[in-house]
User: Fold these one by one.
Assistant:
Number 1:
Amino acid sequence: MIFRLLIIAIIFASAKADSYVPCKSYISFSYDDSNTLNNGNFKTQMDFIRNVVSTLNYPNRLRAEGGYTGEFNWNSGLNIGQMQINLHNAQQNPMPFSLSQQAASLLTSIEVLANDQNDPIAALIFISDTSDSALRNSDRWFSRLSGIRITFVMLGTNVDSLKLRTYSNNFIYWPDLALSQPDNWDLLYNTAFGCANVPTKSTTTGLFSLPASTATSNPVTWLTQSTTTAEPYTFPSTSPGEIPYYPCRSWISFSIDCSNAIGDNDFYTEIGFISKSIGYLNHPERIQVTYYYIFAVSWNDYYSIKQIQSKVLAVPRYGNQYSLRTKLQNIVAALSSFNVPPNNVAAIIFISDTSDAALVGAYQLMAYLTNVRITFVLLGSNVDSSKLTQFSSNFIYWSDLSKPQPDNWDNLSYAAYGCGVN
């Protein structure tokens, strides 16, 4: 394995500056950061990806993100050495595997990728769990990933490729993670990267053929240069004095409606809109997203904007009775996590049901929310804002959910975010 990587490294080191290795694809490594893998196998996976990244030569065409964590996206500005450092320092997440999370994260990255030349996009999705719970809600994201070359890297022996053939017929197997790479990787990687041509092999050695011009290359020097000379990547400071708050210095909470009062298509329109809106904000530590009684993202979590967007897109539709009390309980619980609760909090609550059953017990919590600016986004035509005036007088109407955003959102969003309001 090491010798083959050296051979490939020599080939890539001699490549012309304008040649893409292995080809002109955008490549995504969607690694498995779930608790299904033990930590040793997680590290083996990340070391393998790190070694593969070292053999590629266009870092802006590389992406490495898990279902819950992320190391770099396409066009990150990092060099290969910095990417290797990030991959080496990657941490495992205690959450179960979710293919829906993986696919939603990938889709979010693709939607913001400037790919004017329609170059191939190849995604390697590492997966250790194909149980029903691990695959739940994946269909809706893969239906929007047509044209992407998806290859599943099957980790361990407790995975069933038959359950994934709806999404792709491309599989690479890694049943023994005591080995440093998947089975037949040297034969399959070119196709997995979306490249049209398979590298030629020497008939005498079985290894990839070397151009004559590389015969005197020094592989030790090349590897040293690629892995040790990079300056450590410095993340931009989040000091308020250096990065302005957009749209303002509010703590913003989005309460998603995933109840049985909203149809499937309208629900997906709702979360798509919320995800897009979050993309315009720039302080992720001040964003909270809840649904039902669950916190998809809490204030002061260590997620990037893109990771928050992915989590929003992965929210399931529970189909329970709508409960405003639960929405308000989540906000009260979040405020209780502060030693001194902030006084600039904006809660944007999506609501499709204003029946008595949906509102029961909610008003009792208003005594704890006196400093919170609540804005209701009323979904559809079967909601009655007059039944909500005891909670707030701030309403945004979204009567037609075939439209991509609520009525007058561009004019009303600034106030909904708690900006410019006394």
Note: Residues 39-53 form the longest helix (15 residues).
Number 2:
Amino acid sequence: MLRMDDSDEEERNECKPKGTKKDKLRKKVEGEASNIREKMEHMMKSRDALTMKTLETKLLINEKKKDVKLAQVEARREEAKCKADLEERMIKVKEAKAWKELMVEEKEHMMMSKKDMDEDQLMWWKECKDDIAERKRIFRGASSTFRGDTPMSGGGDGGVEDSTTGDNGGA
């Protein structure tokens, strides 16, 4: 019986070309292999593309970090500049306040009554008056050179009358 089955099979396969089963199997294996190769190539391309995107992203992040650091440095510079300007203004305000206080003291000194002064006190008063007048001349000369204009008054010691001489301070 066994033989009969083999002969039946051979009879059935007589019309078929020999080696087709092997060819089909070989083609199937080759197809699977090429399919696997294609999948591997596709995976490699995907990995390369992903790597490129990752590198580009890293470059963009580094660039943005640089920009942020530059902005921070610029902000610190601007802050330091503003702080220096503020300190400069504070110094000028303190200087102006000191000058104002000095002017008040000078004005009080210039307005002192000289009637009750003895000779030594009068001499001291005149020396102080000369110092004040000199300081005002220097200040006016310095301020006019800084501003680039001429002094506003015509000179003298601010128009204070000297009751001992009857002179109006040279004005």
Note: Confidence is low (pLDDT under 50) at residues 149-159.
Number 3:
Amino acid sequence: MKKTTVLSIIIGIIILMLIGLILPKYEEMLDFFNVKWILIYSILLSLLYFLFGILIETKRLIKVFSKKVRVNWLQFSFVVILILLVFVPTAYWLMLFPHNFLISFISKLEIQVILNVLAGILFVRSFYKEI
């Protein structure tokens, strides 16, 4: 195996272990409704899922940054909107839009995980080599 593959696997295992350690604490804080720690754990989990999405595209990331880099601004702007959508904790979205179907759909933890990983993958794919 290549060094980058082994390093990606090790980093991926570390990220998944961190998620496994933080997720029970996050769910415990949801039960006690400790807003400060819910916010901290929510942002930390979102960041870890986002990094996991970037880690999925490690080979492309290495290829892109070995040459001059260009940005697909349309895709990058979509990624920024997606990041803002999933990094803000659901409690704040539900306070702003209490009866919105889209927000209640996004507030599910599984959907947030999928969107965070997707944001990481699309973030890497928004960069490409200059020809």
Note: Residues 3-129 form one domain.
Number 4:
Amino acid sequence: MNAYKLEVRFTIMMSVLLLLAGNVALIFSIFPVNGMLFGFPIMYIIPILSGWFGILFLTIVASKIGNHIDEKIEQANEQGDPSLEQIEGFTKKKKNYEGA
């Protein structure tokens, strides 16, 4: 059951981080900065680069950690975690009610 809680927390955390990385341009529009980077104005190039590379990096991290959490869930299923049986029993009963 702890792996499921970890997965929920991780999903919420990654959603917030992806939203922040994708919307960095709002920060630069609120607090404009003068300067140049690679020949482009900082207030334009930083949001673009952080959006592209930030989301790429976060996606790679999310896939690695997500796979690790899924492996923990599979191990818990194989070991017969009693808390998981309660969840599975509930879903099985629910299916039986729907079929009746």
Note: The chain has a mean pLDDT of 77.
